[in-house]
Amino acid sequence: MKKILIIEDDADILFIYREVFTEEKLKVTTASTGKQALKLLTKDMPDLILLDIMLPGNLSGYDVLKIIQNKPKLAKIPVIILTNLDAEINKAQELGAKDFIVKVNTPVTDIISIVKKHLLA
């Protein structure tokens, strides 16, 4: 069973994504802060990460992405940025994100397709 880590601070969005991906037969782990996500990554490596840019606390999504990219063991995990900030696509790609999803413009069915595409790559 493929595993994904969803890092999202909006509890409603996190609930929806967890439910949808669980129905797709994926093992879902969630975090609402960057610090929490990094702790989870040391315990159980996912096959893919969905990462929000705007996170509470000291670590933004970009900070988390930089940390992931600088650890050889984690750098191989595809990271898909989830955000409502569509102007951030270039920065996300420069930092190593494999894909970029604008949440408000992307139906959940499309997000599922994007995730599956990267899990099968």
Describe the protein in words.
The structure is a single chain. This protein is α/β, with parallel strands linked by helices. It has a single domain, classed as Rossmann fold, CATH 3.40.50.2300. It is built from 6 helices and 5 strands. A 5-stranded parallel sheet has the order 2-1-3-4-5, with helices on both faces. Helix 2 packs parallel to helix 3. It is globular and about 30 Å long.
CATH class, please? Alpha Beta
Low-confidence stretches: none
Give a count of the beta strands, DSSP E runs of length 2 or more: 5
User: Helix-strand pattern, N to C?
Assistant: EHEHEHHEHEH
CATH topology tier name: Rossmann fold
Question: Brief description of this entry?
Answer:
The chain has helices spanning 11-23, 34-43, 61-69, 72-75, 89-94, 108-120; strands at 3-7, 27-31, 48-52, 79-83, 99-102. It is α/β, with parallel strands linked by helices. It has a 5-stranded parallel beta sheet, with helices on both faces.
Lay out the secondary structure.
Layout: E1 3-7, H1 11-23, E2 27-31, H2 34-43, E3 48-52, H3 61-69, H4 72-75, E4 79-83, H5 89-94, E5 99-102, H6 108-120
Parallel strand pairs: 1-2, 1-3, 3-4, 4-5
Domain Response regulatory: 3-118
InterPro entries: Bact_response_regulator, CheY-like_superfamily, Sig_transdc_resp-reg_receiver
Pfam family, one: Response_reg
